[in-house]
Amino acid sequence: MTSSAVQVRPMRSTDLASVVAEHQESQPDGLYARLGDRFLHTYHSAYLASPGTAAFVAELDTRPVGFVTGIVSTAAHRLAMKEAWPRLAAAAALALLQRPATLRPALLGPTAVSCLCHSARLLQPSPPCAGTATATATATATGIVTYLAVTTTARGRGVGDALLQAFLHQAQLRGCTKVTLATQAGAEGAAPFYAHRGWTPESVHRTATGRPLQVMAWTYPPREVAQ
Length: 227
Known about the structure:
transferase, Aminopeptidase, alpha+beta, seven-stranded mixed sheet, 42% helix, 23% strand, single chain, Acetyltransferase (GNAT) family protein
């Protein structure tokens, strides 16, 4: 193993401090980042504990330089988020009490409304999906990359590629036939990065604030059936 090799491993609870820092660095203007480190720690801790997710950390010279998280089973993740919801709500409320002047406009804005709608969908009963006894033989499962972050100093060294491959491998093991993600549309987004690696563009949709997001998809090639 060379000192410059990217090492990817499953995320552990001891990684949460670096994950929170990388989240803040990559998305400083996001609502969750504005809620502060305590909320982000609670959020990523719940994500890590969910049986419906996959999470990996990348290291260079034993130093964490990036992470990826995503959903590999929507049904299992919904159940986990139902259990975590009270902790997340309490962490958000505490952040608001500590910084009301700063957070009140953000929590009353369209981004917060969008996040609440997403949370409400997660709390709803989920329909049968692939891997359950009631799923049909033709059912498919779609994984979702929710966060991919690489520290500024480690970009251009294959960290993002290594993290993506780890997630795609795990999603396939969990029965996913497709994986999607959303990136900012236009020149400032990362769509060309994904397209160069075999991802295909799907729809473009807008956030509650009007920001366009390009949805990219990875479809696994059909597996050969032994004769």
